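Lab notebook: predicted structure, single chain.

Context: the supervisor wants predicted structures on file for every construct in the current expression panel, including those that have not yet been purified. This is the next one on the list. No modifications to the sequence; it matches the entry in the shared construct table.
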Amino acid sequence: MTPFQGVEEGSIPFTRSRMTTQSTLSPYHPVVTQIIDLLETNSFRYETFEHEPVRTSEEAAKIRNGYTIQQGAKAIIIRVKVSSANKRFVMLVMPGDKRFDNDKIKTLFKAKNIRFATEEEVLEITSGVQPGGVPPFGNLFDLEVIVDPLLLENEKIIFNAGDRRFSIGMLSTDYLKLVKPLVSSLV
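Prediction complete. Output recorded below exactly as produced.
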């Protein structure tokens, strides 16, 4: 990894791997390239990590050196049912060590019922991204994104970027600019 030059925000320098060409990213899901392209187009600082496949936040935290589980952006797709005619999928994003509060989510959406998206639904919504690899970029999948403010208390966040074997770390302020999520308490 090579360090970024002239880090302006925060005290933690970023590094970026040299593997951002299409040919070196080809073993990963195409969403990885989409996210990197977004970051580079906007001149946002980030760093990448290749690692063994991980599915849970706990597994990921053990292998992402320099990051805590609280910095891990856990992305969960749920189905919200307001009425029999009004059902939709949304993405919840929170720190990796937290679980969402069902009652808060139901209140937020005025929902009668909420449930996790099934594995099949996740694969369909994300064009094949496996559960555990879903990035907190619901905007790439036409999903409304709600992020818990606890995650944004971190200067930097990290997440699986469309593949269970590939993570990206970035500034939380840049994440807000790219995704434009609703910020609301989820936990």
